Amino acid sequence: MATSLILHQDHRIDIEKPCENLPEQAGLGVTIKVGAGQTIVIEGDPIDHYFVIVSGTVRLYKAVVDGRRQIIDFFGPTDCFGLTGLDEHAYSVEAITDVVMIRYPRQRLEAVIGVKPDLGRQLFRMACTELDQARRQMLLLGRKSAEERLASFLLGLAERQSHGCIELAMSRQDIADYLGLTIETVSRIFTRFKRAHLIDLPDRHSVVLMDSEQLEALAEGSLTV
Amino acid sequence: MATSLILHQDHRIDIEKPCENLPEQAGLGVTIKVGAGQTIVIEGDPIDHYFVIVSGTVRLYKAVVDGRRQIIDFFGPTDCFGLTGLDEHAYSVEAITDVVMIRYPRQRLEAVIGVKPDLGRQLFRMACTELDQARRQMLLLGRKSAEERLASFLLGLAERQSHGCIELAMSRQDIADYLGLTIETVSRIFTRFKRAHLIDLPDRHSVVLMDSEQLEALAEGSLTV
DNA sequence: CGCATAGTTGAACTCTCTCAACAGCCGTGG
DNA sequence: CCACGGCTGTTGAGAGAGTTCAACTATGCG
């Protein structure tokens, strides 16, 4: 089985995340490039592949017929998507920026579990990590105020990016659809935070956290601006 | 490893769900009984076990200091909980009714993966099923109206229970905290549905779906009562 | 029977949404 | 280099869905 495989090219993933060594699994991966704005998978497609992102950002979302959209998550380098128990995608995925990723044939990868049980353990851990994230977001969507949502969002991004300045790959609309708000509310609260000197907005795709402590308090609901 | 194990007693799980044969895995399980209202795990506890429910219903939730609560899911017979990527529980679990469940030592179970790769595949699938469910709920919490939420909830229950009459093990407060609403809103919409002859409420713990078709339409947002 | 708990109903309020106008940025073409 | 149009984001005013607070009713248990 491990013989009839396509070798992926040159991309190597950071060691940090659970999917760190997926690419090495039997050399199953194929490198794929997608332009900004392109659709990668659509709700209802059969699931033939798992994907690991090398560079760029994608949004994973569910849509309702009438146009409403809920972004499930944004994924960046080292993140993986396509994990699901179903036989067809329950969500759509689009590239926000230009994206490079590695594609793994689902069937083959799952077959490898029989040979390398560690892969099964690893996939399990990855799914669990996603699960924890999804459930944390459920608390946000179900019970937090708009201010709490945006504060949580910014802190989450800061954690992932660890720069002084956060780069927002996504639009205000994307943020709104991720937080279960409207674009206007997101905009208003950005402004409110800026006026309260909690953040700075040097340009529309950058945020600087000026007072993370207060933002934390805000995110937990023990404060209002 | 598979030798030093406690055998669980007599409970046998339906064959249907992904965790169908967990109990058989090396006979690792121990049967546990918990009374209604009892807490099974608390947010922050170390994760030592996975649990599979034999009978009864539990609620899994996250809480905020100020008392707000988001119920992540209700689990019944054959459902499993405790799956997570972290080393401590990110949620609390309480018994709603009297509950019988089987407890598996996490470490040992994960160790078995090395010997039985199928277990790894199975845990992966279970986690993926939970993941899909959590993400579906994210759409509900982020983008659906109160009516849509309650309609979706009732239809989901009906699917799981497949009787003509739905038994609500949980209180109105539990439903509210699951749907990201208040108890008053839930109550009002129950009444509204009843007046519109979409459901009947013979007693406070039972719901009869009178017009599933309309409820489906409502759940999808193509209708209002 | 009486109390405690759970659920329902009403009225007022509020947070977020909706609708609408405006401002800023960017690429294109004159 | 600036004018223009298109797109994204901001701001304001008004409306509405759901919450809050409070009173009331029903249910179950000693």
Explain this structure.
Two copies of one chain form a homodimer. Helix content of chain A is 37%, strand content 22%. The longest helix of chain A is centred in the middle third of the chain and has 27 residues, at 117-143. Chain A has a four-stranded antiparallel sheet with strand order 1-8-3-6. The first copy, chain A, is an alpha+beta fold and 225 residues long. Chain A is elongated, with a radius of gyration of 19 Å. In chain A, helix 1 (106-115) crosses helix 2 and helix 3 packs across helix 6 (212-220). Chains A and B meet through strand 5, helix 1 and helix 2 of A and strand 5, helix 1 and helix 2 of B. Chain A binds a DNA duplex (30 and 30 nucleotides) through helix 5.
Q: What class would the helix/strand composition of chain A place it in?
A: alpha+beta
Overall body shape of chain A: elongated
- Give the SSE order of chain A as H and E letters: EEEEEEEEHHHEHHEEH
> Total number of helical segments of chain A?
6
- Main sheet of chain A? 4 strands, antiparallel
Q: Roughly what percent helix of chain A?
A: 25-40%
Strand order of the largest sheet of chain A: 1-8-3-6
Proportion of residues in β-strands of chain A: 15-25%
Q: Report the end-to-end length of chain A measured between terminal Cα atoms.
A: 59 Å
**Overall mean confidence score, pLDDT of chain A:** 87
Number of strands of chain A: 11
